[in-house]
TrEMBL record:
Superkingdom of origin: Bacteria
BP GO terms, sorted: alkane catabolic process
Organism the protein comes from: Mesorhizobium waimense
Keyword Nucleotide-binding listed: no
PANTHER family: BLL4220 PROTEIN
InterPro entries on file: Lipoprotein_repeat (IPR005297), UCP029720 (IPR014558)
Keyword Signal: yes
Extent of the signal sequence: 1-20
Keyword annotations: Signal
Name this protein carries in UniProt: Lipoprotein with Yx(FWY)xxD motif
Pfam families on file: Lipoprotein_15
Coiled-coil regions listed in the entry: none
Length: 125
């Protein structure tokens, strides 16, 4: 019985890690290394957010959908999980919550970079 329990625990831990690994990925767009969601859509940060806290709700979140994190998601290196006031969770890179942009239509689009001088592409180090 202990073997089954240990095996199940290991499976659950690896599954939680896989949620993180599948939420974002690194991409090269025009010679710039950036982070995207699992579908290749560019990720952005918002200057009006605070470290570990999002300030993008309602119309903002409609135009800039948060990169959702599963309820059981755990931090992974520079990637952390932020709680939203609606009870959901989202991913943050280096403490800054990350979003996609509704006007980006295909993988590699970066039309949100510089919008309102407060939105910025998340560049991979």
């Amino acid at each position: 019985m202990k073997t089954i329990t240990a095996g199940l625990a290991a499976l659950l831990l690896s599954t939680a890690a896989s949620f993180a690994a599948e939420a974002w990925k690194e991409a090269d767009v025009g010679g710039t290394k950036i982070y995207t969601d699992a579908n290749g859509m560019t990720l952005y940060t918002y200057d009006k957010d605070e470290k570990g806290k999002t300030n993008c709700y309602d119309k903002c979140a409609t135009n800039w959908p948060p990169l959702k994190a599963e309820a059981e998601a755990k931090a992974d290196g520079e990637w952390t999980v932020v709680d939203r006031t609606d009870g959901t969770k989202m991913w943050a890179y280096e403490g800054k919550p990350v979003y996609t942009f509704i006007k980006d239509k295909k993988a590699g689009d970066m039309t949100g970079d510089g919008v309102g001088e407060v939105w910025h592409v998340v560049k991979a180090d």
